[in-house]
Amino acid sequence: MSLGQKLAPHLPFLRRYARALTGSQSHGDNYVRAALEAIVAAPDGFPQDVDARVGLYRTFQAIWNSTHYDEMEGTGGDADREAIAQARLAGITPLSRQALLLTAMEGFTVADTAYLIETSPEEVEALVADAIAEIDRQTRTDVLIIEDEPIIAMDLETIVRDLGHSVSGVAVTRDEAVAQAHAQRPGLVLADIQLADDSSGIDAVKDILAEFSVPVIFITAFPERLLTGERPEPTFLITKPFQRSTVKAAISQALFFNAATIEA
């Protein structure tokens, strides 16, 4: 099997990580593209002592730590998001965010994460603890949940409230979601893709975003379909079945990049 064939199954999930880390689809996908270009340019330099997934993320981490793409992308939305992020970095470092996302969202072990960010397992645990402590002090908001499966909706409600946020409503159809968003403007939306009446959570979110800007996290059993890098796609994505820690990390990271949650 060629190196490209070994890496292909892991690319959607690297895009998920990169988008969550940067708060932007285009910014994150650019980093992934740069990592792939580096591998193509020097395939002999690809890590041989670890499995393909770990080697891919290690290459990405090297690009992330050494390259800044703001100049390539120009100003505008991505630059604004990065400025917002920097404003919140007083108590949480980029390395802390990487450690949290790699463990909670990507499911790497502490040992693998230590290898990826070139530190010790003990330091990884300290970094994650620092990130969680800062997240606990994050600005609270109202969350709209768009989910037609009652058990999953209840679980999401519990996670949201455990983080200190409020639930503005739970909608099971597109029309219901839009109506609830208009009735009480949320600060965050958690949206399933397929809804009860065969309507789409994606369409519901499009309708909501046509009225006002709000960060969105999509929830799907088929993440690869929304992580192709070939069209406008979600920045934040959670895979079903999900772990509570994954949802918490995604919520906190989405709010981290949201200008509306920056404290005055």
TrEMBL record:
A Pfam family annotated for this UniProt entry: PhyR_sigma-like
Residues where 4-aspartylphosphate is found: D192
Coiled coil: none
Protein keywords: Phosphoprotein
Protein name (Swiss-Prot/TrEMBL): Response regulator
Record SMART domains: REC
InterPro entries assigned to the protein according to its UniProt record, in alphabetical order: Bact_response_regulator, CheY-like_superfamily, PhyR_sigma2, PhyR_sigma4, Sig_resp-reg_PhyR, Sig_transdc_resp-reg_receiver
PROSITE patterns cross-referenced by the UniProt entry: RESPONSE_REGULATORY
GO biological process: phosphorelay signal transduction system
Keyword Flavoprotein: no
Start and end residues of each Response regulatory domain: 142-255
Domain of life of the source: Bacteria
